[in-house]
Structures are given as structure tokens and as C-alpha cells.
Amino acid sequence: MGFDSVLPAVAVAAFAVAWGVTWLCCRPGSWLYFLDHPNARSLHVRPTPRTGGVGVMAGIAAAVVVTIVVASPGRALLVALGGAFVLAALGLADDRAGLSARLRLLAQVLVAGAFVALAGVAGGWGVALLLLLGLVWMGNLYNFMDGSDGLAGGMAVFGFGAFAWAAGQGGEPALAAVCAGVAAAAAGFLCFNFHPARIFMGDVGSVPLGFTAGALGLVGWRSGAWPLWFPLLVFAPFILDATVTLLRRALRGEKVWQAHRSHYYQRMVQMGLGHRGTALRAYGLMALCGVAAVAGLRVGFSLQCAIITMCITAHLIVGYRIDRAWRSHRAGEPEKP
Questions:
Q1: Is residue 326's pLDDT more than 70?
Q2: Is 143 marked within a binding site?
Q3: Would you say residue 304 has pLDDT above 90?
Q4: Where, in this chain's numbering, is Mg(2+) bound (predicted)?
Q5: Helices 52-70, 3-25: crossing angle, 10 deg rounding
Q6: Structural domain count of the chain
């Protein structure tokens, strides 16, 4: 069945299921009503349920069912999705009762390792190790970036939306359908998560979404739908913020595994832009990267390099302005980025 006939059914099913399940999770009487209580490192000020990721994953499950019915997903795609649901179950247990960081990390390594081994995306032990580490980092960095209303959900809408378009144009209807389903499920959740958020995504949604972004990026790469730089550029707003922040904290001798409020998006919220202003500005950067990445698939190598350079430069400029404004803010001279 062609891409045009698969995509609408998947997107509608994913959005409807995600919206409905997220609505149920917002209700105080629901058994999935786990509250996230604010602390010194939080950006929210009142207890808020943190199980919105259940709605996202339910929407993705609906998308997978429809895709299996109308298309033929390959083994690599099914393994990636299976790993995401394992991580979602682990995240739900963590959101409910709290799990040790070592147990969570071990599970993430095992899931990433199983994907690399079963999906056939690596060509040797060295490459396999790099891909495994990259997948674990993608899951964790997405979790780190899920700290402001509308941010993680928006990245999923823009990021997987770009994946869906590229996979459809690249002759991969099953991959396109699943990616469209992830984007639609995130949109259903975003109806409740955009500021003022009624619910947060939680580990049940953020870690699986990060893993899925990395895993489906590799699936598309191995199938020939896109080059390896494509998923990195699409999710660059999250990858660069989280990675640069981690490196800077490590260089300062800080404990990088501890909660903090030094991500660029966290600084924007604290400097007065608020959750809504930060999300809208981030959406602009996400849209730029998504459109640029898709456009880059249609041009030659030289123009691809120019597009990648342009996007990196845009991030450098944004980062510089936020750093400058943050220094002024800390000195008592408010300046919006």
C-alpha cells in the first residue's frame, strides 16, 4: 500500500489515542495520576502529574497496529519499537516508585545493545559500541531536555514529522507511517502539555522518545532513506543543548548526573521568557533544522555542507546570546536573549 494511503490513518489513530489516554492521566482519580512535586531544581511551582508519556506511548502503539495492518514493517523497525516499549515500562515503574540510576542505565544499555545486535545497523564491534553509546545518550538527553512546558512534545512533533516526510520520499512507507504516528501522538499529548501544562511527559515518555529518535534514525540510514547526518541535524536543538551543557558541567568539575537548571532552555525560562516564550522560540529552531535537513536531502554534497554549517552557526549564535544574557541576568541587569 502506498505512502499516501497509510499516513492519514496512522496519524489520526495515534493522535486520538494519545489525546484520550493523556486526558485520562490528567484526572485525579486515575491510577496513572502520579504527581511531580516541585523542588529547588524544578521550573514548575505546583504538583503536576507526570505520566503524559503513557498517552504518547499509547498513541505510538495504535500507530504500530495500523502500520502492521496496512504496511509491512521490517525487523529493524519492530525491534526499535519493541525497545521503546520496554523503556516505557521501565520509565513508568521509575515514575511510580523510583528506581536506582544504575538499574535504569543498565536497562538502557541492554535495550540499546539488543537493538544494535538484532537490527543489523552496525558493521563491526567499534561501530556497534559507538551506536550503543549514542542510543543511550539520546534517551538520556531527551529526558534532560524534558523540563519545560511543551518542549519535549514539540521536538517530537517537528523531529518525527521530518522523519516521516523524508521516509515517505525515500520509499519507506512503513517507516514513514510509524514516524508520522509518533509525531501525531506527541501532538495529542502536547494539547495538555503546552503552557500552562496540565501534565508532564515523565520518564515513561521522554527516555523512549529519545531512544526512538536515535533508533529510527539508524533504521532510516541503513534502509537508504537518509544519510547519517540527517537525524543528527533534525534533533540538533536537543542534542546540542544537552551535550554542550554536559561538557561544560564536566569541565567545571560538577557532578553531571545530578539535577540542575543550567541547560540553555532552563536559563531562558529563568530570565523571564517563561515556558511559553521559550517553547515558541525553540519551535522556530526546531522548524529551521527540520526544513533544512529535508531540503538537504535534495541537493549535492557541497550544498549539504553549507546547510549543516548554517544550522550549526544558528545554534552558536543562539547559544552566545543566551550566555551573554545569562551573565547580565546573574549580574542583576536583565537582558532577554
A1: yes
A2: yes
A3: yes
A4: 143, 203
A5: 150
A6: 1
Q: Is 36 annotated as a binding residue?
A: no
Model pTM greater than 0.85?
yes
Give the residues across from 35 on adjacent strands: 49
Asked whether residue 336 is assigned to any structural domain, the reply reads no
Task: Say which DSSP state 197 is in.
Answer: P
Residue 335 domain-assigned (yes or no): no
Residues 6 or more apart from 178 whose CB is under 8 A from it? 10, 60, 63, 64, 67, 73, 77, 81, 216
Q: Which residues does 252 contact at the CB level (< 8 Å), separation at least 6? A: none
pLDDT grade for 86, boundaries at 50, 70 and 90: very high
Q: Is 224 helix (H, G, I), strand (E, B) or coil?
A: coil
How far from chain centre, in Å, is Cα 297?
Answer: 22
CA 28 to CA 157: how far, in whole Å?
A: 27
* Owning domain of residue 83: 3-330
Q: How confident is the model at residue 96 (pLDDT cuts 50, 70, 90)?
A: confident
Q: Which amino acid is at 233?
A: L
Q: Cα–Cα distance between 67 and 8 in angstroms, integer?
A: 11
Report how far apart, in Å, the C-alpha atoms of 317 and of each of 148, 230, 312, 323, 337 are: 22, 21, 9, 10, 10
DSSP 31-88: TT--EE---TT-S--S-EE--HHHHHHHHHHHHHHHHHHHS---HHHHHHHHHHHHHH
